[in-house]
Amino acid sequence: MAELLPQELRVLVAVAERGGFSAAAASLGLTQSAVSHSVRGSEAKLGVVLFERGRTGASPTPAGERAVGHARRILRLYEVMGAEARGAGGAAPAAPAGVLRIAAFRSAALHLLPPALERLTARHPGIRPEVRVVRELGAGAAGEVAAGRADLGIATLGVEQGLAPGLLSGVLVEEAYALVHPAGHPDPKALPLMDWDENCGSYTRTWWLAQDWIPRATVKAEDDAMVLTMVGRGLGMAIMPELSLREATGAVDVTGLGPEGPVRRVGYVTTPESAATLAVRALIRELRAVSG
Domain 94-173+266-291 classified CATH 3.30.450.20? Predict the structure, then answer.
């Protein structure tokens, strides 16, 4: 099978991100016919249709999603190769430098990443972290890594859909869930349950279903910060992990759920090629140092 050239990879990424051949052509400074020809050539080389064409544009097929993810990751490696090669060409030992793309869910971005990034940039001022907060639903932060949009993700591990093939992960923290209720409330279990979509993955569901005191009727909120605010105002109780509870105020009380209570594992996710780069290796060291 013929290999795709870097420019062909850039075209695939542009079509996927711009949603069509015309928009991709404009972003790349090419003609629409050149983009169409490049995509047809890539499809011929790979032996699979990469995009569904329609009147409103083009969208990746499942094979196209996978190909575009690999294309982003390969193009990213070209960038890293240049930066690390230039760094190794000097008299001093090579130091990590350049942009480091990180995806994380909200509470991890607020509480787990900042101390690690503070240490990282103090040791390696040439690194420029770019953090994007993503909802931990579906593919979540790990999906951003698989799609080539992040070099490293902070994600919940052990969820039922698992990691995409070829990704590497490591546990950073194991955090227990706790009952959160309005401060001083005489019977918090009588309150409605506050919840949010990112909560209660497969690692907690078995425990959740076995608790007959948890009401079936729930009040949904947008995220864990909103849940805490609503609980503090006496609107309900919630079951939340430790990272989310770092924002708790005196308006709420927190009660442990005992040794049999649910536990969430939070860790890093990256690719084998990114794990070999200086910047990602340095960030993993700092994440382990602050979470150990």
Answer: no
Q: Where in the chain is the domain with CATH 1.10.10.10?
A: 1-93
Cβ(144)–Cβ(135) below 8 Å: no
User: Domain 1-93: which topology?
Assistant: Arc Repressor Mutant, subunit A (1.10.10)
Q: Where are the domain boundaries for CATH 3.40.190.10 in the chain? A: 94-173+266-291, 175-262
Q: Are the beta carbons of 194 and 179 closer than 8 angstroms? A: no
Domain with residues 175-262, CATH architecture: 3-Layer(aba) Sandwich (3.40)
Question: What whole-number distance in Å separates Cα of residue 75 and Cα of residue 13?
Answer: 10
* pLDDT, tens digit (0-9, with 9 covering 90-100), for 113-170: 999 999 999 999 999 999 999 998 888 999 999 999 999 999 999 765 567 788 999 9
Dist CA 70 CA 148 (whole Å): 7
Residue 159 is predicted with a pLDDT of: 63
Both tokens assigned to 276: 């070999």
> H or E segment at 129?
strand 127-133
Residue in the structure block whose two tokens are 């990034």:
117
Tokens 């960030």 locate to 283
In the prediction, which pLDDT does 134 show? 95
Rounded to the nearest 5 percent, the helix, strand and coil shares of the chain are: 45, 25, 30
pTM recorded for the entire structure = 0.84
The dihedral over CA atoms of 248, 254, 257, 259, expressed in degrees to the nearest 10, equals: 80
Which pair of tokens denotes residue 82?
Answer: 């240049």
> In this structure, what token pair is assigned to residue 269?
């996710």
